[in-house]
User: Fold this.
Amino acid sequence: MRVGIIGAGGVGVELVNYLLTLGNMSEIILVNRTKEKAWAEIEDFSYVASFTYARNTHLHHGDYADCKECDVIVITAGAQLKGNQTRDELLHENATLIKNMVKELYQYAPNAILLMVTNPVDVLTHIAYKEGLYPRERLISAGTLVDTARFMKIVSKKVGIDPKNIYGFVLGEHGKGSTIPWSICNICGLDVDTFCELNGLPLLDKVQIYNDVINAGFEIFHKKGNTNHSIAASVFRIVRAIANNEHSVLPLGVYLDGEYGLSDVVLNVPVVVTRQGASKILNYKLLPEELEALHASAKVMQKMAREVL
Assistant:
């Protein structure tokens, strides 16, 4: 598989590391506005090939044209959060950049799957989709997968169970408008309350867990200036699911057209990830209040999108 990465910041560079040492990619192309930075990162990574744990992946740096015939292109470039700035405030800075970027990439890689990481990620995916170039299954927001990973870890610490045995999703937008539909969450196959009751544990404070999930990224950002490790890992998870045609179910941002009673919005919902991208949107029977929360999130996303469309 040939993967292009646009942006040599913290997430983009760490993603190269994941793909190089844990993935099975044939080529990786790193594109950055400062070409010297992309060259230096790729040159540094090139020496990893001397070690036995690294695949013999061809590494390149270049421009959009070098992304020709890429199977997946990950977009991490754009203005980053500064100080107390919100993701929403990034919108106007990054909207024009993304519109132009998608048009250029389409010239060289019309058949690629575009994976958006730049914030505000769901609205920017919507804006990119509205350019009318890539179909919705091949224009995906990495959105709430990282939030879901945080949710699994936070719950696991409460109940003393490996996070890989916690099942559930953070849905809606990647941000304060996200929602956790507890009715479709479980621990080791049991609904959350039943698991706690049967195993002598206090019931989980679901409001506190939601707040902890929402604030996790901001706390890390304010202490170290970015949140790159878990985000890069979540993007790698998506790329691997595509590369291996896994049919894995992941919460990703896709353009909705009637699903969950929603249209004309990019929102994170459970999707089946295959070699074709987000090949199917799964339907879940949510509780009325959970569906209402999802619709509230959609209204916020639609309002933001209208500001720049």
Q: What stands out?
A: Residues 2-141 form a domain with the Rossmann fold fold (CATH 3.40.50.720).
